[in-house]
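Our platform keeps sequence and structure together, in a single record for each protein. Because each token names a local backbone shape, the row as a whole describes the fold. One such record is reproduced below, unchanged from the form in which we store it:
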Amino acid sequence: MLKKESGLIDFDTSAKTLDCFVRGMTPWPSAYSYLDGKMFKFFKIEHAPQFDASAEKVSPSTVIKADIKNGLIIACNKEAIKVIEIQPENGKRMLSEEYLKGHSIKEGACFGK
């Protein structure tokens, strides 16, 4: 039986594995991670191969890009993922580009526990 803690994302894995994990945890218990002490739930992601070269230079869970044009791009194990749908703590589920229109996530920030 799945517990809520089962949904904590481990970014030190491949983009394909992360995609399967996120889909498997949706709708419950939800795949999630923390940024600056706030929980973010991830509902849909995809591999972002155009950012793989950047992902190789940083640690897994590092934000590579966070803007309206590119969306939210996060490094995983030598690859990059684009977060399509996200839900901030105490917020509603939305496209990551919509979230970034009203909120700032700094490039170089790291998701984690």
User: Anything to note?
Assistant: Residues 4-102 form a domain with the Methionyl-tRNA Fmet Formyltransferase; Chain A, domain 2 fold (CATH 3.10.25.10).
